[in-house]
Design brief:
single chain, mainly beta, nine-stranded mixed beta sheet, 469 residues
Length: 469
């Protein structure tokens, strides 16, 4: 690794001080969900490679895969970050700040996306040499040197290997660059999945700007249908493919307000409880016109994060109406589920999954679904019924009828039924109502040969959507 001193290691490479410089790591590795060793780098030569297998045994040995971010084994600390189906892991024997190392792993994931186009098992296998070169430049004997894309791009010599950008057989993998989504109808899925730095592909000459508004919805609904909790965590991400330094102006809803500030404008109010911005965003026009100005670095960046609690401006996207009956023979439970989508008719949900925990004595499942595209199964490992709906148009409803064979069915067994958990994606939908009014490019040096293509995309994910039975 080239000598650059103890550089700052935020997204812009700002100085963080002695605390970050003193952070010492022993190993960095990346595993697949099956435990395959994709990347392994021993930074100090002090630990055995079996630490990788020990981590995988610990992370997969916990119920439902809910492993803590920080784990310990014989004095060695494991800090990991789950990205898609990959585990990014750091080990250390120091007493570190977990947030510091989590931020490092997050920046490592972002740098791989910037240089390779995407972060997946296939990408890592095709670009392992480039990833090792990145680690060599980022770390020196376990100490962080830099995680800035603008700094590291000057030292990385390996060219990325780009996989085939589009295939009908991979149509289900189309998605936003900033979210693990399965459907996007506004731009080709591979458009934002090419490297932001390096590369000599023909696509690299295109000037494009991508803005993604991504929201995660947390909801708890009582058994009587009352809303107990509703939270929205949102962010606005930017990815640029521009040849020079350019200022980007992004206009948000004129009616956008933060906290208890007075509602602005004449349209539908968009209110959030909290809001924070990237340090490079200029806010001179935000108070008066709700305009964000930024000169973005190469690669991805999070322009803005926001949160809204308990007072959503729109109706909840899904409502579940369950009924449970016990057969006279005392061995079967009949569960009827009616799921209604309250989105506007022109909107839709995709990849909807309903997970319903069932009594531990359940041995078999009989099912009756409202359409042949749906499917359901009894998952023994999680002791639940999984009902999958590929596409759910707004304003419609689907039904499912399940008969469960339960050994030793009792009143206590009924208490083990539920709560139902929904997982879904809502393309081109935001629960907060946040919208991008315009996306403009100014002060380009040098000016692009043709106006850049500008893409604005929206998606809402379920983070935790629980409905008590």
């Amino acid at each position: 690794s080239r000598e650059r001193g103890a550089r700052a290691w935020s997204e812009r490479g700002d100085e963080r001080g002695a605390a970050a410089a003193a952070m010492m790591m022993s190993q960095v590795f990346i595993l697949s969900s099956r435990g395959d060793h994709l990347i392994y780098k021993d930074l100090r030569g002090e630990e055995q490679k079996d630490a990788v297998d020990i981590f995988y045994q610990k992370v997969t040995g916990l119920p439902k895969g809910q492993a803590p971010v920080v784990m310990h084994h014989q004095g060695l600390h494991y800090i990991h970050l789950r990205q898609n189906t990959l585990y990014l892991v750091v080990t250390t024997r120091d007493n570190p700040s977990p947030f510091t190392l989590i931020h490092f792993l997050s920046r490592l994931a972002g740098l791989i996306k910037d240089h390779c186009g995407s972060l997946s098992e296939k990408t890592l296998r095709m670009n392992f040499a480039l990833v090792y070169e990145l680690l060599d430049e980022m770390l020196d004997f376990g100490y962080i040197q830099s995680t800035s894309t603008d700094v590291l791009k000057n030292f990385i010599q390996t060219q990325p290997v780009i996989s085939k950008p589009f295939s009908l057989f991979e149509l289900s993998n189309i998605g936003l660059f900033g979210a693990d989504t399965q459907q996007s109808k506004v731009a080709p899925g591979h458009a934002a999945s090419r490297p932001a730095v390096g590369g000599n592909s023909t696509q690299g000459s295109k000037t494009e700007i991508f803005v993604d508004v991504i929201e995660r919805l947390t909801v708890v609904i009582a058994a009587n249908g009352g809303l107990l909790k509703a939270d929205v965590q949102g962010l606005v991400r930017l990815k640029c493919f521009l040849p020079g330094t350019s200022e980007i102006r992004i206009g948000l809803n004129e009616e956008f307000s933060v906290g208890k500030a007075e509602i602005r404008g004449y349209g539908t109010a968009v209110r959030v409880d909290e809001c924070s911005f990237h340090q490079s965003v200029r806010l001179e026009e935000f108070e008066s016109s709700r305009i964000l100005r930024v000169v973005p670095p190469q690669g991805e960046m999070t322009l803005m994060q926001y949160q809204l609690s308990d007072d959503l401006p729109t109706a909840l996207p899904f409502r579940l109406f369950p009924t449970v009956d016990k057969d006279p023979d005392g061995r079967r439970l009949t569960v009827n589920l009616k799921l209604r989508c309250d989105l506007p008719p022109r909107s839709q949900g995709v990849n909807i999954s309903v997970h319903l925990p069932v009594p531990k004595g359940t041995t078999s499942l009989w099912q009756e679904l409202s359409s042949p595209e749906q499917r359901a199964e009894l998952v023994a490992d999680t002791r639940s019924v999984r009902w999958h709906i590929p596409i759910f148009p707004g304003g419609s409803q689907f039904t499912a009828r399940f008969k469960l064979e339960v050994a030793d069915l009792s009143a206590a067994s009924l208490l083990e039924l539920g709560p139902a958990c929904l997982q879904f994606e809502l393309p081109m939908t935001t629960c907060s109502g946040l919208q991008v009014r315009f996306l403009r490019l100014s002060s380009a040096h040098p000016p692009p040969l043709q106006p850049p293509h500008r893409w604005v995309r929206y998606v809402t994910h379920s983070d935790s959507y629980l409905i008590r039975i």
